[in-house]
Please model this.
Amino acid sequence: MLDLAALRRAPDVEAANLSAVDASDRLILDEAQEAVRTHPEHVAIIGDRHGALTLGAIDHLGAVRPHVHQDALVGERALAANAARLLGSATAPGAWTQHDLDPSLVTGARVVLLQLPRSLDALDEVARLVAAHAPPDVVLVAGGRVKHMTTGMNDVLARSFGDVRATLARQKSRVLHASAPRADGGAAWPRSARHDDLGLTVVAHGAAFAGATVDIGTRALLEVLPAAQPGARDVVDLGCGTGVLASALALARPEARVTATDQSSAAVASARATAVANGVGDRVVVVRADAGDSLPEAAADLVLLNPQFHVGAAVHTGLAERLFRAAARLLRPGGELWTVYNSHLGHRSTIERMVGPTRQVSRTPKFTVTASTLSGDRREQGAPER
Model:
């Protein structure tokens, strides 16, 4: 039987304080075992971080070709890597199927396993999807770490299900069971908001960072965007989120070719919808990729970046450093990286090492915007390790 402790996070960030599996994964599997064994061919799995739920359901509980949705591309790749390394032929192609967060994911599903998202909006979108498109006898088994759970999660589930109950905590984890889906699902996703002060409409799916608002870090970069390489023809919005920067730049510079990229499925869907809502859907190409890894090397004059500083629950510089390194790979010599980050993080020395000479463009107690110029020798230093 598969030892879940042997799972790895790779190609996601790996560190001593980051794990590929935790007690909530194990508790979800334990709580769902009877339902999965009763309906092994009708299982959907949502939010599996690195493969614990999918491989556990297949190997421990006998699930047959479960439908799987993972928002993060690195999660999909970690699942595949763990399957190949630990189960071999038992997880030949077709042992599970990957889906977008759409009706195909849950149609026919009698059991849905969910790793609870932090965002109540993300949970609401999942709950409404399951209630609207799964059979009436579906059961949702949703788990998480107690420290990250709130009573608001129960309230969100109760909007879409008639019966919601919580288990006792075990190893600082808890599971919520939801059944009896309601027909009146309420407002559909995605949601949109008009920001007249910016001249932008933002469209967001539930799991997209900041939703349909514009976070203050992005606003700090928007304020100085006119000065960012005014002659740039090829621009990349790296880690684009809802695509605010990409759409703003495309509106301001009709001659520019703009690519927006993110590893989040929700971000990519949101960025495409944001571009369409602002009339630039034909000029913003949106690509799902891990740190822009599917984009060509040395093809951008300008890279825009508002990097995350959390990996799950932990503050960790690994993801930001991966994106700085990616920017160095994507830029042409002489191109520039314009990035915004929390001032207390002090990323400047890291950016200078990975990209090149860096100057401060603006600074507040909360956010710093810097511009870094790539030289030929710096690009080689910033190239990703093989």
